[in-house]
């Protein structure tokens, strides 16, 4: 079976001239020496990027999804290939409704009518991993039921094994292929794909995002009904809205498209910098707009996460970009360890300025984030800057925001929209508010530890010989430092309590 599938992959690759792409990428390499004499007679009317997209579509939904993920790696791909792969659509024919019913009954151990008294057997959406049906719960609530495509795990495992084999082959015959690390890319793809095979994982993502934006005036996230969720079935609140791509319908309903575009930017930066947890698949097919103008998010299979270090680094870079402080951008790259310590700040500063300066004071319609990111990645390679894997999904989401912005308001100035938000966030991170928030967060810990401090100091003294005067001096000095620290914390805690009391009384 695997040999048959491998033969099929090789056949499709040859038919679309993908073997020739190895020669184009590395004309003096080992692959070129082997293949060039055999390929001179072949001519293709379509560009290489189009041929690659068509080959992935011919190989089926798993390869289509791989191409989608690969399109976000603009640090690895030529621009024409990345742009063409971004056109891949994860649309496949639905599987029979009888199989969906069987999956639901197997998951809950009951007949379908006992789980969902009303169930629309015609799916409303179908993709490579799952499809969605509308239904009603016993209490009459309208829901959307996502059902995993049967038999997906062995198919995915099979195709991933073949992808890894092909990646090894590319590394073996191409020096440039080794630099692009195809096996690492396949492993990264496998992680995201296996996450999508557990709909409980997606339900948890949805629930977290809903909690983060509870009572938000900008974004609505459906409620998850956990009693009706399993590994192969996810049930959530049915959402009513207009697809965000239908701009004429939205305008006819009185929705302010310019305000909607600004809200999209704020939602993105809120997810990234406030929460460190963001919807990483926000293309137009996953977004509706409610009649009150709020965004409605759908499909939570892919999310991105950032830790505090990532958020702080990104915020500093964004603010430095917006202020055109390219020296600070260069310094942040070196301080974070992304660029080698021996990198000259002035040289990296000049390179970043060359890339970024032309984009300022221009509307979004005249800016291509794809080209900007590509040039930044090319600059990064020249200075041996490491592209951090945790930011790949963030890059993809930025590209989606670009597409939405162009649809809703081509004149949107992303920089002016985002800058005030980032400045407020940074002031909370490094200003006096940050000190008070930190004291407020640490207060329960210190309330527990403070009473134990004298006993801990006494125990340490008792463990050492009394004649060790030097150690005693050190411990006494440490005790004095602790007292000063505790005094500062106590003052900060009092300030926090005073502010809180003033807020409540006011």
Write the layout of secondary structure elements.
Blueprint: H1 2-15, H2 18-25, H3 30-39, H4 48-59, H5 61-71, H6 79-85, H7 97-108, H8 112-115, E1 118-119, E2 125-126, E3 130-136, E4 142-148, H9 152-173, H10 175-180, H11 182-196, H12 199-212, E5 219-220, E6 233-237, E7 242-243, H13 247-252, H14 257-275, E8 277-279, E9 287-289, E10 295-297, E11 303-305, H15 308-322, H16 326-335, H17 345-356, H18 369-382, H19 392-408, H20 414-430, H21 432-449, H22 453-463, H23 469-505
Parallel strand pairs: 5-10
Antiparallel strand pairs: 1-3, 2-3, 3-4, 4-6, 7-9, 8-11, 9-10
Helix pairs in contact: 1-4, 2-3, 4-5, 4-6, 5-6, 9-11, 14-19, 14-20, 15-16, 15-20, 16-17, 17-18, 20-21, 21-23
Domain Protein kinase: 118-506
EC number: 2.7.-.-
GO biological process, one term: ubiquinone biosynthetic process
User: Which range does the strand content fall in?
Assistant: 5-15%
Low-confidence stretches: none
What is the rounded distance between the termini?
73 Å
C-alpha Rg (nearest Å): 28 Å
| Strands, count | 11
Number of domains: 4
| Count of helical regions | 23
Largest sheet: 5 strands, antiparallel
Average pLDDT metric: 78
Give the proportion of residues in helices.
55-70%
Shape: globular
Structural class computed from helices and strand pairing: alpha+beta
Oligomerization state of this entry? single chain
Describe this structure in words.
With 506 residues, the protein is an alpha+beta fold. It has helices spanning 2-15, 18-25, 30-39, 48-59, 61-71, 79-85, 97-108, 112-115, 152-173, 175-180, 182-196, 199-212, 247-252, 257-275, 308-322, 326-335, 345-356, 369-382, 392-408, 414-430, 432-449, 453-463, 469-505, and strands at 118-119, 125-126, 130-136, 142-148, 219-220, 233-237, 242-243, 277-279, 287-289, 295-297, 303-305. It folds into four domains: 1-89, no CATH class; 92-239, no CATH class; 240-430, no CATH class; 432-505. Strands 1, 2, 3, 4 and 6 form a five-stranded antiparallel β-sheet that branches. Helix 16 (326-335) packs across helix 17.
């Amino acid at each position: 079976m695997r040999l048959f599938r491998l033969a099929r992959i090789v056949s499709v690759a040859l038919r679309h001239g993908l073997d020739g792409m190895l020669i184009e990428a590395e004309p003096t390499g080992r692959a070129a020496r082997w293949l060039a004499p055999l390929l001179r007679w072949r001519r293709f009317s379509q560009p290489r990027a189009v041929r690659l997209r068509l080959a992935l579509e011919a190989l089926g939904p798993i390869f289509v999804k791989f191409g989608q993920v690969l399109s976000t790696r603009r640090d690895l791909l030529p621009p024409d290939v990345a742009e063409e792969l971004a056109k891949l659509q994860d649309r496949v024919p639905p599987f029979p409704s009888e199989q969906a019913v069987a999956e639901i009954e197997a998951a809950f151990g009951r007949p379908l009518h006992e789980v969902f008294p009303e169930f629309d057997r015609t799916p409303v959406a179908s993709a490579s991993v799952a499809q969605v049906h509308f239904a009603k719960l016993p209490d009459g609530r309208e829901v959307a039921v996502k059902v995993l495509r049967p038999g997906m795990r062995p198919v995915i495992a099979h195709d991933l094994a073949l992808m890894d084999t092909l990646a090894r082959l590319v590394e073996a015959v191409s020096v440039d292929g080794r630099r692009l690390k195809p096996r690492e890319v396949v492993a990264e793809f496998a992680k995201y794909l296996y996450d999508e095979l557990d709909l409980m994982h997606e339900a948890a993502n949805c629930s977290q995002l809903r909690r983060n934006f509870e009572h938000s005036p900008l974004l609505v996230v459906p409620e998850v009904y956990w009693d009706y969720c399993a590994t192969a079935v996810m049930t959530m609140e049915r959402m009513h809205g207009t697809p965000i791509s239908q701009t004429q319908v939205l305008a006819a309903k009185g929705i302010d498209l310019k305000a909607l575009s600004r809200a999209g930017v704020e939602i993105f930066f809120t997810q990234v910098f406030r929460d460190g947890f963001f919807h990483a698949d926000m293309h137009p097919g996953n977004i509706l707009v409610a009649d009150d103008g709020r965004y409605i998010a759908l499909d939570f299979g892919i999310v991105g996460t950032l830790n505090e270090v990532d958020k702080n680094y990104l915020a500093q870079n964004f603010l430095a970009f917006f202020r055109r402080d390219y020296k600070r951008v260069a310094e942040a790259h070196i301080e974070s360890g992304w660029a080698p310590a021996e990198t000259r700040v002035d040289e990296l500063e000049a390179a970043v300025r060359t890339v970024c300066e032309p984009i300022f004071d221009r509307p979004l319609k005249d800016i291509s984030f794809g080209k900007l990111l590509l040039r930044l990645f090319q600059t990064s390679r020249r200075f041996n800057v490491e592209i951090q894997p945790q930011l790949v999904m963030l890059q993809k989401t930025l590209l989606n925001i670009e597409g939405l912005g162009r649809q809703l308001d081509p004149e949107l100035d992303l920089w002016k929209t985002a800058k005030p938000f980032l400045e407020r966030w940074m002031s909370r991170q490094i200003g006096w508010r940050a000190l008070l928030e930190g004291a407020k967060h640490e207060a329960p810990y210190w309330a527990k530890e403070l009473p134990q401090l004298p006993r801990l100091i006494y125990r340490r003294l008792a463990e050492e010989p009394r004649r060790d005067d030097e150690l005693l001096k050190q411990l006494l000095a440490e005790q004095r430092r602790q007292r000063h620290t505790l005094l500062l914390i106590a003052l900060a805690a009092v300030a926090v309590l005073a502010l809180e009391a003033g807020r409540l009384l006011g």
